[in-house]
Amino acid sequence: MKGENHMKKYCIVGTGGRGIQSYAMPLVSDYGDCAELSGVYDINWKRAELVSDLVGKPIPVFNDFDEMIRTCKPDAVIVTTKDCEHSTYAIRAMELGCDVICEKPLTTDEKKLAAILETERRTGKKVTVTFNCRFYPFYVRIKELLMQGIIGDVLEVHFEWLLDTRHGADYFRRWHAERKNSGSLLIHKSTHHFDLVNWFLDDEPRKVNAFGTRRFYGHTREQRGERCLTCPYKTTCEFYKDIDDDPVEKRIYHECEDADGYIRDRCVFADRIDIEDTVSVNVKYAKGAVMSYSLTTYSPYECMKIVLNGTKGRLEADTAFGGSNLKVYNRSGERVDYVKVDNRVIPGGHGGSDPAMRNNIFRGYTSDPLNQMAGTRAGAMSIGIGIAANISMKEDRAVYLKEFLGDYYDI
Asked: Nearest to residue 149, comparing CAs of 312, 368, 370?
């Protein structure tokens, strides 16, 4: 895709919020000169049929994935299904001759990961993993400073990610709350964070040890219902969500429930929830750096906090209370404040990172000095930490990524 700007054809599998709003709509509205949305497929046929109306242009809808590929003959397939289904469609797309643009995470467990890697090798097709955090201006600035050697070689990382009870709770309403679908938040959500550290360090993880609990969500409250919409406690529950409040969400989820039975506003205290809401992970990297990472899903405020300690100084960054605060300390006792770095409100999703990433994907790129574009190697290393952490918690031991990545790890 590098440097190629001629017209390309794309198909989308998975027409939830991400598939429609982050790919289908922008493809039609912003990239008509270089990209064509040729077809969509979803197991929920009603939601797939909404795409044409939402993008303002007739888009062919298929009830069979293989038929869509054979009919449309796309250059690439955009995979935005549930995480557990990424491997199914990515593998089949490659076998049918297409490149793949896969939403993070690449997949959910070591067996599916191995199958994707084997298929990419066998078919010679390319998988791009969409790590939009690599394009977020604040994180780009951190990467630039690290590449300039502002704190020397990084020896240690402390990384804390706080999700508030608006954002964090939403994962426990949706399909993400079941491990069979998401692989846990260590796979679905933390893959962003692990990839950021891998990218910042320009290094790969070797060994992982992890602990996790679930004590906030799940069956911790007797006053609960099947879903928010019909819950007898909805007037008193602080976690009540009105599924009809967002008109697009109402159309693609609530009004399409009868097609596949998926309920978007299930109770955050349900028995079905089997993923952790609190995790603590330690990682050792190939070049010697170590990381301590934590994810909290019920914080009173939303925030990322990261500290990188290096041979020449210390970098501290956070996004607390709407700011983007970045400080660097050197060994002479001096501090440089990079306050509110590029903190403009940029339209297009995730602080402008989505449109920047889409430009690189759909318009092509002539250079990639910050190594922002990611493939299966980066995808494997980010979920590799999550996979290893899941094994570590289950078996109560430290886990080496080589245990499940095998020969691929030595390439």
From this structure: 312
Q: Write down the pTM of the prediction.
A: 0.94
Question: Do you know the residue count of the chain?
Answer: 411
Is the pLDDT assigned to residue 80 strictly greater than 90?
Answer: yes
Mean pLDDT of 15-42: 97
According to DSSP, the residues that pair with 336 across neighbouring strands are 328
DSSP category for residue 408? G
The side-by-side arrangement of strands in the sheet containing 154-164 is: 335-339, 325-330, 313-318, 303-310, 154-164, 290-299, 278-285, 205-213, 399-400
CA 247, CA 383: separation in Å to the nearest integer? 33
Distance between CA 168 and CA 171 in Å, rounded?
6
Q: Give the CA count within 13 Å in the CB-facing half-sphere of 349.
A: 16
Decide: residue 3, CB within 10 A, 0-12 exposed, 13-18 middle, 19+ buried. exposed
Three-state DSSP class for residue 374 = strand
Residue 6 is predicted with a pLDDT of 75
Q: DSSP for 218-230?
A: SS--SS--SBTTT
User: Is the separation of the CB atoms in 390 and 180 below 8 Å?
Assistant: no
SS in 3 state form for 291-359?
A: EEEEEEEEECCCEEEEEEEECCEEEEEECHHHCCEEEEEECCCCEEEEECCCCCCCCCCHHHHHHHHHH
Token pair for residue 219? 């069956």
- In angstroms, rounded to a whole number, what is the distance separating the alpha carbons of residues 78 and 28? 14
Q: Cα-flanking dihedrals φ and ψ of residue 296, to 5°? A: -120, 130
CB-neighbour burial class of residue 329 (10 A; exposed 0-12, middle 13-18, buried 19+): middle
Looking at residue 368, what is its pLDDT? 94
Please provide the distance, in angstroms rounded to a whole number, between the alpha carbons at the two ends of the chain: 23
Q: What residues pair up with 338 in beta bridges, in sequence order?
A: 326
At 213, give phi and psi (nearest 5°). -140, 165
Is residue 272 within 8 Å of 177, Cβ to Cβ?
Answer: yes
What number is the average pLDDT over the span 122-128?
98
Q: Are 31 and 362 in contact (CB under 8 A)?
A: yes
| Strand 335-339 relative to strand 325-330, pairing | antiparallel
Cβ neighbours around 351 below 10 Å, total: 22
Residue 130: which of 359, 343, 305 has the closest Cα? 359
Alpha carbon distances (Å) from 365 to 1, 29, 55: 8, 20, 26
